[in-house]
Structure formats: C-alpha cells, structure tokens
Amino acid sequence: MDPIMVLRYLPALLLLLLSSSAWAFTGKDPLLLVDLTHSLFGIAAVAIFVIGYLFVLGEEFIHLRKSKPIMVAAGLIWLCTGIAYALTGDTLTAGMAARQYILEYAELFLFLLAAMTFITTMEERLVFAALRSWLVVQRFSLRKIYWITGGLAFVISPIADNLSTALLMGAVVMAVGNHYHKFVTVGCINIVVAANAGGAFSPFGDITTLMVWQKGLVEFEQFLQLFPATVITWLIPAIIMSRCIEDGPPSGETNRLHMKKGAVTIIFIFLFTITLAVLSHSTLNLPPVLGMMTGLGILKLFGFYLSQHEPIVHEQGHISHHHRDNIQTHKHMKGDHGDVVRRFNIFKVVERSSWDTLMFFYGVVLCVGGLATLGYLTVLSQLMYGGFGTTQANILVGIASALVDNIPVMFAVLSMEPQMDLSQWLLVTLTAGVGGSLLSVGSAAGIALMGQAQGVYTFVSHLKWSWAIAIGYAAGIITHMYLHNMF
Length: 487
Prior knowledge:
One of its GO terms (molecular function) is antiporter activity. With about 475 residues, this protein is mainly alpha-helical. Helices cover about 70% and strands about 0% of the residues.
C-alpha cells in the first residue's frame, strides 16, 4: 500500500480505535442520567424541538425539506444537554449518551440505505412501472381497480415499504381515474390505509417495525401475529368507502411497458438479502444490517455485470449520463470507471435514495435521544404507562402518530423502555403503524399521495373518511386484544 495513503487514513483509524475503546469501556451499563427537565437548558431543548417540528409539519406549505430544521434542532438540543450536564459537574455522560444514539442510528441508517437502494434499483429497471402498466392495460372496472390496488398495497408493503407501495398504487389509481375525482380520492385513502396496515406486520414494512425488530423486542415471525388485526384495520374502512365508487369504465394508456434486463435477477437478489438478514439475526444473533449490506454488495457486483453488457447510449435516460463529448473521450474506459458511458450505474442509483428521509431520521433519533438524556422521556413514561395504564398508553401512541409522525413517537416509546410483554409490544407496533392512517399527514404514505394527487386527495377529503378509518383502527385493536386474551 502507498505510504502516503497509510498516513492519510491513520488519524481516522486512531479515532476509530479510541471510540471503540471508549464504547467497550462503557459496555452495557446504564448511564447515570440526571433529571434536568426543570433546568433552563432543559426547557430550551423542548422549545427547540417544538419549533423544529413545527417546520417539519409545515413542509407542504413552506416547501422546506423536513430534514433541514430537525437536523439543526438535534445539534442545538445536544448543545443544551451538554451544557446542562456540565453545569452539574458531569462532562462525560452527555457525550457517552450521544455516541450511543449515533451508533444506534448508524445501524438503522445502513439497513435503510441498503433497502432503499434495492427499491430504487427495481424502479430503475421498470419493475414497478411494468406492474402499473399491466394493471392499466387490463382495463379493469373502477371498482375492481379499487380492490386490486388496495389488496396489492397491503401485500407489497410488508416486502418493500409503505411509502414506495403507496406511490406505485397511487399512480395506477390516478392513471385510470381521470375525471372520476371521487374514485381517485377514496382510492388514495384506501391505498394509504392498506399500505400502513400491511407494513405493520413486517419488519420491512415501516421504519417503526424495523426499530422494534432491531431492538430484539419482537422476533421476525412474531410480527405475523398482527396479520388478522391489520386485515381488519384495512378491510372495514375499505368496505365502507367502496359503496361510494362509481363503477364506470377506466381510462389511461394502452401501451404495455416491459421490465429492463436484469430486473428479475435483482428481485431474487432482494429476496435472498431479506432471507439472509432474517436468518443471520434469528439463528446467529447477528445484526440484520450485516445481511442487508452483504446483499447490497451482491447487487453492486450484479450492477457491474449490467454495466458491461448493456449498450452505450448518448441520450439522457432514467439515470443521468455524461454528455456526448465525455462519451467520446471515455469510451475506451472499462469496469466501474467506465460506467460514465453505460446505461446502468449502481452508484447513480444509490444517489437517488431518499436522503431527505435518512437525514430526517437522524434528526429524530438525536432529538429524542437528547430529550431522553435530559430526563423528559422518563417523566413521559411515568405519566403515560404509570398513569393511564399500558394498554391505554399504547392506544394513545397510535393517535399521537396521526397528529405528529410515527417515527419520533415510536422511538420515544423505545427510549422509555416500558416493561411490557410481547402482546403489548405487538399492540404498540400495530397502533403506531396504522394510527397514522387516521389523518393524511399522519404517515409518509399519506403525505406522498397528497403531493401526487394534488388538489384531489387532500387533508380535508381524507378527514371526511376518518370516522370509517377510526372504526377499523378500533376493530383492529379489539381483534388483537381478543386473540391475545388482553381483556
């Protein structure tokens, strides 16, 4: 190895070793946290979080990406936390706690990055576009499209995620709905409820379920116990809303799209990656992210194969390419470096991952972690789980998810670490997953579809059917409680 390269990376290596030693020293011993909720800096941290989240909630109106204010809020909250502890004479606890939350985020970040890359790659290979095209070309009636899109949203979201699934099925509803605005409205609501419900019984369906799984609180196969409750949660409002659908003829394109070369192989690599992540976690107790990153490596190798066997193109395609001059200059290049003139480039696909979501998740984890270190989550846990009771508190978590967002709510619950059995952890997973369906702004799927079907599917149009969704939400909870003898 080049000695210059060794010197360049030596400081980073030393920093890694020092941080690893520090982490090994702390072990799993609980940090000696102090109640600083009544301190000036503790109150300031809460104010910063509220202001930051108001910007997040106003994303649709001020057009400021949600990751920006919440990342700034995270940094300011930890400054307040560090100063508050320093004033007590403790200059170590805040830093140790921050490293713990950063490490927790890093594991989830890599997992989500791998999963998003697979979804984005399948999108680039026209897997989802081909499915959408097939549904449109079949010329199903509007009523059939309503049930097919809802059913597929429920089935696909546990494997992919509720956001991608909602966008895919929403495109189908808009393509065939055309001037049937009532159909587009109820079709989008049906998709949001189905995608959120389907994502609740799988670790891969939503970030909240992923967090619960990676914490080791619920095993992979145990999530399937939520299947009956999630089906009820979706079917009841779906049946109620289906009665207002005008069963008219569909509209839309008649040309059939086909998947690109390698699409089927990528689907199998994705399924293999999920299997590897699950089995390595359940049998060897290894972090699931190891399996996901291994699968991502295999995907990159296959991407290299595609870059060698696809024709050179001169026009702008689905993924950005260099200009004609660059193609003439670099056409002799081979391997990964030659991807500048190839149709497929796996690193360009990685660039198209939802970085705003990943950075927003960083901000949420660090904000909630800072408030937890200041003692606020302990107070909140005593108020909710000590005052209301476990079941009532878990039901309220779902309602809070509709008003705010299920990611910070669920992470707050996980940080509280309430003493609950499996049935209660499944209940809070259910409520956090499907509770966001009560309002259009309560889930990423709803917010995304409001942008996709702008002016037709709105907050108000969703609110008109919230009563039906609430009936399904209550019925799903009752079903889960009955099946687990929680009455």
